[in-house]
Amino acid sequence: MAQAKQGDTVQIHYTGKLPDGTVFDSSVEREPLSFALGAGQVIPGFETAVMGMTPGDTKTATIDSNQAYGPRRDEMVLVVEREKIPADIPLGVGQQLQLQGPQGQALPVVVTEVSDAEVTLDANHPLAGEDLIFDIELVAIQ
User: Fold this and answer.
1) pLDDT for 87
2) pLDDT tens across 87-133, in order?
3) Parallel, antiparallel, or unpaired: how do β-strands 58-63 and 118-122 relate?
4) 92 alpha-carbon distance from chain centroid
5) N- to C-terminal Cα distance for the chain?
6) Cα–Cα distance between 40 and 42 in angstroms, integer?
């Protein structure tokens, strides 16, 4: 049977967990995830884990944060004066907003703190700094 290799498009089912067992995502109740190996469509450690699997194989892979969403970076946390955010934007902790990056790209941020004077915005990926554990099943190689 063929093994998954660079350039193959694969379909997989997965369940992603944190080291404490908290499930953060799963495809089990959905259609399998389809992606091309080597195309950078998923985190690097996930691609590496799928390489060499054959359809029907299952495995559990622990992916270091550096091969997932990278380290948590303090410079990605911004404190903005409340008056610089339009008054018609309601702000609450956990709310997701988008800023415009230096090249005009959308930069997603999460509100982590709100006071009358300041708003703290975090542009780190929610899973930055986390080691991740994935239960993976290779469904098919297309």
Assistant:
1) 85
2) 888 899 999 999 888 888 898 999 999 999 999 999 999 999 999 99
3) unpaired
4) 22
5) 13
6) 6
Q: How many domains does the chain have?
A: 2
Secondary structure of residue 104 in the 3-state scheme: coil
- Cα 55 to Cα 8, 13, 35, 43, 75, distances in angstroms: 12, 11, 14, 21, 42
Residue 2 domain flag: no
27 within 8 A of 130, measured Cβ to Cβ? no
Same structural domain, 64 and 108:
no
Amino acid identity for residue 35 in this structure: F
User: Is the separation of the CB atoms in 50 and 36 below 8 Å?
Assistant: no
Q: What pLDDT, on a 0 to 100 scale, did the predictor assign at position 57?
A: 98
Average pLDDT over residues 64-68: 96
* CB atoms closer than 10 angstroms to residue 85: 15
Give the residue-averaged pLDDT of 49-70. 97
